[in-house]
Amino acid sequence: MSHTDKIEQVGLARVLGPAHVWALGVGIVLVGEYMGWNFAVGKGGAYAALLACWFAGILYTCVAMIDSEVTSTVAAAGGQYTQAKHIVGPLMAFNVGLYLVFAYTMLEAANAITVGFLVDTVATISGHQGGIDQRPFIILAIMFLAWLNYRGVLATLTFNLVITAIAFTAIIVLFLSTSGILGTGALRHADLLSGQASLPYGWLGVLAAMHFGLWFFLGIEGTTQAAEEVRSPARALPFGTLAGVMTLAIAATLSWYVCAGLMPWEYLGQSGVPLFDAGRLSGSTTLMVFLGIGTLFATLASANGCINDASRAWFAMGRDRYLPGWFGAVHPKYHTPYRAIIFLVPIALIFALGAPLDQVVTFSILSGLLEYTFMPLNIILFRRKWPLHSIKRGYEHPFHPVPAYVLLGLCGITYFAVFLGYGTQLVAMIVFYIVVSLWFHFWRYRFVNRGAQFTMPWPKPQGY
């Protein structure tokens, strides 16, 4: 037996609990409350961004319910990729795996860009003339978090749990301090959101805002990537995912409320770090520093979780030979998919150092959107092939098939919203995924171990 074969027989460690799942999901997404969501304000105004936030909340609640049922039953690394492999088929699984990897890797790059921008902003405030070179901080952030992921999942997500909790607390403190609950109210909604400023582009602006409205919640579905490393998938995955969506809905609404009451929509719509700007405008140096720390922690937590999730999807595809089997190795000491972690680092660095933030954000959103479009088909086929009485589920989501149809409809609306502003990028990405699908079908599929694809101990599907 070769050394590589021995490594590949080492499994991932089941060491995580519900709090780690919450930290993974919320940690990835909370940066969306610190930056990125406000581009929706630029698309349609402050009220349009709020409506987009709530519509996106409905979309992600459907995603969370569907994911919780399927993942607590298909408890393996790869998340939606592994679900597609068992329920739909190989070609869909390959595409979903790529959607996951690109969504998380692009989000990681966006976070690194934000870290660099934040350091530059702080340096400018401190009196440093001409700003500073952001690139070393971008590289340092990605390399440090990749090293942390390499060393073990328990330490990685415990770190996420701590810094995510601090970043969430900063949002709560900002709200309490500026709304008048703990001091003098500094918010001016009546002045900033009156007249034409309420909906400057009408209802078309609300539709356009759906593009960046997803940024409030994008990545919560990443909790599924921990399925093979939690101690109790049936309990930890549904609890961590659904609690995460509720946490993010609160944080998103409070972030909008504070920022819309402190900044004109024209400025808010193009701010690089809106919550940090809100801390600066509050008039409190302590609050400004706390929000600066919160912004830094939120971006690090998100990038950290993205490395975790992208590497698990890439690792699972390598283990199944959808990609070269070399990527399916687990570190013999740290029990992490170390080759997948290392391989994705330069890809994240290329985009973080060479692409504008809005383009990177859109790349991540579109990849996530393609993944969400697959989910309704996935749950409908899952319920049809294996009805509730046929296999034991860790969680059964209610109101089926209503969430699936609602999710599909909201995805369709968001595609149109993205097309309004980034039509060329949307078409280019769809063409890219079509080309790689053809490559997989005509070349790569011959290397897939077809006999090992179905690994769950389930009965034959209904009708087969």
TrEMBL record:
The chain crosses the membrane at residues 12-32, 44-66, 87-107, 137-154, 161-181, 201-220, 241-265, 285-307, 340-357, 363-382, 402-420, 426-443. It comes from the Bacteria. It is found in: Membrane. The keyword Phosphoprotein does not apply. Keywords: Membrane, Plasmid, Transmembrane, Transmembrane helix. It is a multi-pass membrane protein. GO terms for biological process: transmembrane transport. Residues 28-434 form the Amino acid permease/ SLC12A domain. InterPro entries: AA-permease/SLC12A_dom (IPR004841), APC_superfamily (IPR050367). GO terms for cellular component: membrane. Pfam families: AA_permease (PF00324). This is Amino acid permease/ SLC12A domain-containing protein.
